[in-house]
């Protein structure tokens, strides 16, 4: 079946001199989608897909209008059109409810028309309304517990106020107010307090608000309060506000709506059930606008992903509330544009009046004297009567954010022996920074203090002894200070050690791993006693060789092993395994070629040295076991050293160079989070293992026969058979691949140091990923793309100074106290 749209699309593609494959790649849709649209198999093209095709074809405004009109007539829905490029400021040219497509869809995803929300009376609407009600109840229960855990209402929430942001960080007021063309815009009154945030939000016709604030200013508390207050006043047909930690979103891999669906399904598994329309309940709730995203932590998105994230948000008209630190948001805006149709406010500092109202009510009354007197009275009197004194000025600067006030309350109000008057001691605290250090010094004790859980049916949060947690965090801070960086990168956890230590540990672990593999596999061919000796020799020589390679390729260059991907060339295109499919450039291939030549040379040299040593030791061992004279034994050892030297050199060189050709650097700046990057690199190493083991094994196994065949004419009779070649190939392939993975890959370095050496020496817990994720959930760490950072720079500095390397505390043994898992 053909139509005007089919014919027009083919004509425009031919005029652009593009194949279906080229158009699909440029538009970011599947080849099957293009083919289906041109043949008529897909009878309902989405307007957003048509816009992507128009952009890819580079159509003029008139041609774009013609193609859109043909698509709309084909769908039989003239109201879905909306011509031209109007509507969005992101450059995608979407308007109205059409702004729903923000990324690339899989090849096999069918084009379809978005469901239209708000059609009353249908069975689907009633079902979705019931599901939304259940979601609202679950969200309210979760964040109510969170507020209780944070003691937000004890005795009442700290006042959080805001002010307008500079005009360059907000959209035009006409867009925010959704005024028609020619309307006279005027600014909205967005003033208010924490308990008025829902009312302020409802005054914004576009339903889009960005909340900016520096570290500790109360952004997350405001987001939680917004959700809870919105749910209290929510009508049955209104969207359910749900908080999403937007730092985990990769806008280049998932569309915004798909990511929201995935997060909903993860946090609320019941929403994975199919909806009446065929898709999941989570997807249907998102598609029909029944979820109001509250995006917390835009600044935690990787710096390389903030621009595409903001562009993706601008490509949809979904109502939302977004929080971010001002600098990161401003930088993203400078790269692309403001959040379309969004108003923006910035949180302000606490005032002396706020402190005077709040702090006295957080502590018990003083014994004796006036019943209204509290331990905070001397502090507040100093701040009020002598605001310009050193003590008053320093303390006022510190207690200007809810974070520091909360820490002060935890240290002094919640501790029976705490005396807040000590904060005025200028001899002890000579600056605001020293006061912050004092409060931060008690931070870990506060956040790791055991608290009862109130989550029936959920897994209890892992608990850690505060002293142990502070020691581990201190080592991590000390490690970052030595490297002079705020970024906690999992692939560099071993770089804080001395060079000699790193090399010896890597060589030792490689030695043990290869020796065990040699013994385990070799016993299938030879007696155990012989294989133990053979494994010892192979392990020692492998540790020595990979240790030398590690020294020259990594340590001597003072460069960590970076996470990498693996690419394979198929029909002129490069497919990235263990990562997103992408086309690599000629420049990248030339760089890989330049890396391959040195790797080839290093492989040849290391293989030759290993083969010489292994062959000589094996020949001597065979001579001793056969009780041959010493002179004959040495001759056998020399002969075997030449043979094995040639075999391993010709096997290791090409295999080592081959891996360099297939390696491709990953864009670490665009990684979603540390855990996902770790998993990606683990898959990369698995692919490298599958490449190295067969390649090296075949080269050694088959090469041994090729090398030995002409040698009897020179060296005399040699004993060699298929079984010996098979054994040598299997052991060499597995051992060589394992040694390469442990010493020369980012995941291998993580395994050697973060999973073995550092936990073994007591500097880090055995379950490090769990500990880091728990620290992130507690607010000790923050995520910035592929790395963790301490939530506050002064916290990192304090923990680094308080860390004492010589003392290694005893490992805990009680379950749930950070014991090894």
Q: What's the gist of this structure?
A:
This protein is α/β, with parallel strands linked by helices. Helices cover 54% and strands 6% of the residues.
What key phrases describe this protein's structure?
about 800 residues, alpha/beta, 6-stranded mixed sheet, 3-stranded antiparallel sheet, 11 strands, about 5% strand, flat, disordered C terminus
| Gross morphology | flat
Structural class: alpha/beta
Portion in beta strands: 5-15%
- The side-by-side strand order for the widest beta sheet comes to 1-6-2-5-4-3
Beta strands, count:
11
What is the typical, i.e. mean, pLDDT? 76
Q: Largest sheet, if any?
A: 6 strands, mixed
Using the CA coordinates, give the radius of gyration: 33 Å
